[in-house]
Design brief:
The complex is a heterodimer of chains A (260) and B (278).
Chain A: E1 10-21, E2 24-36, E3 41-45, H1 52-59, E4 67-72, H2 77-82, E5 86-89, H3 101-106, H4 124-130, H5 146-158, E6 164-168, H6 176-193, E7 196-201, H7 204-210, E8 213-218, E9 223-229, H8 244-258
Parallel strand pairs in A: 3-7, 3-8, 5-6, 6-7
Antiparallel strand pairs in A: 1-2, 1-4, 8-9
Helix pairs in contact in A: 4-5, 7-8
Chain B: H1 4-17, H2 20-53, H3 64-73, H4 75-109, H5 111-126, H6 129-140, H7 144-168, H8 172-180, H9 185-222, H10 228-237, H11 241-269
The chains are: A alpha/beta (260), B mainly alpha (278).
Chain lengths: 260, 278
């Protein structure tokens, strides 16, 4: 399959999202264009209120576009959602506190029109092993650390083998050491599963370390500032962050963010 | 040199405090569970001594020993009166809570119905049970039914209010998750709203377990030949104070057992930590 026939994972064309309330309307995203190839890893970086989360929610069919077109895997976002092509990881793990780790991972197989697992999918047990939680299947969320909870949330997002993984600041609430570990593991999981990832973050090093390209968004209204390529070879060890190329990209992004 | 004694005194105090819960945690919690029984025994002994010292007449304040003796000698009669009260409070508890849960589910599905009926429920709830009881006895007669209805009424409102809160206070991000998973309305209800509401439901059921007994007894005061409420009225009118106290003890014991059973069920069912929803 060449990239010419395969539909783009995500394609936004002049996408605008306006929220209107009694006090007037806010333009969260203004005329955004973005093309993400299948299997790509794109980070969305920008100050608070630049519409990063709104962009993810637009792709996930959680908010509608006011203008412009949104295409996910060559069709409307709703079709991708109903076909279980989307996995979503929130900033809080959003686990159901009465379900064990394993039962939380199993949730997507119990709800929705396509709940039954397709043959050949990884089982919830295998996914917990993939995220390094073998042996903790029966633990309740309150018995797990913040990092472990987020691993469960990632395993849950992967259980229907989505072609697109949307991650909204998934490691924002974690300490730096846990965050480094999970960043490395996310890259491993990305390479093992070949899924497309859209990753929202506040952290410049995290964005450069993980992604192929970083979409920098400016605020008021939320719009594209620049799409920056991170030309560092994979696999990337944590030490890549000390290379001159990494530092060059990071300082370029920092300079860009100051003008957003 | 002057500073040293204070330093020596201060240190072991800190040191002794810290490891204690680790070393004897289990023993300490067991002895702490015994504390209320010790306190009760002390109070009963003080009561016994004071009543004897001041030689209070038995119809004003019987001693604990007299009450205990009555509890034993009158046990068959007490049990005969206990059965209807227990049945009334239990059946009222089941019916009142079942209706409250059903109405809460209706309210959550239809905001309009809630807007129409919730203020009426609040209004009815403001009428004191002592005013509601005679009305209900007039409608449902002097038999068992009116007591069951009063007990059900007294359970109804706290459970309704808690259940509506429980079913609606769902983490908004969990709702977004369900939407990404394309979950249906009934899947969201059964897999998200119902479990989220259980801690709220149980705090209401614990209140209802004791108030349903109160409702049954108030109902029996209005008119009944049998039941702990009827026995309380009869014992009071005849100045049979030890019997009055024994009856009060039996009704309290029943409420405590009822409460303990509900608490036990709660601990078995709500095993997760509330509030830690992330």
């Amino acid at each position: 399959m060449t990239s010419l026939d395969a539909p783009l994972a995500v394609e936004l064309e002049g996408a605008t999202v306006r929220f209107s309330s009694e006090r007037g309307s806010v333009t969260a995203l203004d005329n955004v264009a973005l093309r993400v190839p299948p299997g790509g890893f794109i980070s969305l970086l920008g100050p608070s209120g630049c519409g990063k989360s709104t962009l993810l929610r637009l792709v996930a069919d959680l908010v509608p576009a006011t203008h412009g077109s949104v295409s996910v895997l060559g069709g409307p976002p709703e079709r991708a959602r109903l076909n279980r092509e989307l996995g979503f990881v929130f900033q809080d793990a959003t686990l159901l506190p009465w379900r064990s780790a394993l039962e939380n991972v199993r949730l997507p197989l119990e709800v929705g029109p396509k709940k039954r697992a397709r043959p050949g999918l990884r089982t919830p047990e295998e996914l917990l092993r993939l995220v390094g939680l073998a042996g903790r299947e029966d633990a309740l969320p309150h018995e797990l650390s913040g990092g472990m909870r987020q691993r469960v949330a990632i395993a849950r997002a992967l259980v229907s083998e989505p072609r697109i993984l949307l991650m909204d600041e998934p490691f924002g609430a974690l300490d730096e050491i846990t965050r480094d570990t999970l960043n490395e593991e996310l890259l491993r999981i990305w390479r093992e599963t070949g899924t497309t990832i859209l990753f929202v973050t506040h952290s410049i090093p995290e964005a450069v370390f993980l992604s192929e390209r970083v979409l920098v968004l400016a605020t008021n209204p939320g719009r594209v500032r620049e799409l920056v390529a991170c030309e560092l070879p994979y696999p990337r060890p944590l030490s890549v962050r000390e290379t001159p190329e990494f530092i060059r990209i990071a300082s370029h992004l920092r300079a860009l963010l100051q003008t957003c | 040199m002057d500073d040293r004694p204070t330093a020596v005194i201060a240190e072991p105090a800190v040191g002794r405090r810290a490891p204690a819960p680790l070393a004897s945690g289990a023993r300490r919690s067991r002895s702490q569970a015994l504390l209320p029984f010790v306190a009760a025994a002390v109070l009963l002994a003080a009561w016994q001594i004071l009543a004897q010292v001041f030689s209070l007449p038995i119809y004003i304040a019987p001693t604990p020993i007299q009450v205990a003796r009555t509890l034993i000698t009158e046990l068959p009669m007490l049990l005969r009166n206990f059965v209807p009260t227990a049945v009334e409070s239990f059946v009222g508890f089941v019916i009142g809570n079942a209706i409250a849960i059903a109405v809460a589910v209706l309210f959550v599905h239809s905001r309009r119905l809630e807007a129409a009926l919730y203020p009426i429920a609040v209004f009815v709830n403001t009428i004191p049970i002592l005013a509601k009881a005679p009305i209900l006895v007039l409608i449902f007669g002097l038999g068992l039914t009116s007591k069951v209805v009063i007990a059900a009424f007294i359970c109804f409102f706290p459970t309704l209010a808690n259940m509506v809160r429980g079913l609606t206070s769902v983490n908004p991000q969990s709702l977004e998750l369900m939407r990404v998973l394309s979950a249906s309305k009934s899947e969201i209800f059964w897999k998200l709203r119902v479990p989220s509401s259980l801690p709220f439901l149980f705090s209401a059921l614990k209140i209802a377990s004791t108030t349903s007994v109160l409702g049954a007894i108030v109902g029996e005061w209005i008119g009944a030949d049998l039941g702990l409420g009827a026995l309380i009225i009869e014992a009071t009118h005849n100045f049979r104070s030890p019997l009055l106290y024994a009856t009060v003890f039996v009704s309290s014991a029943w409420a405590v057992v009822f409460f303990a059973v509900v608490s036990f069920a709660e601990r078995r069912i709500v095993t997760w930590k509330q509030g830690e929803v992330s």
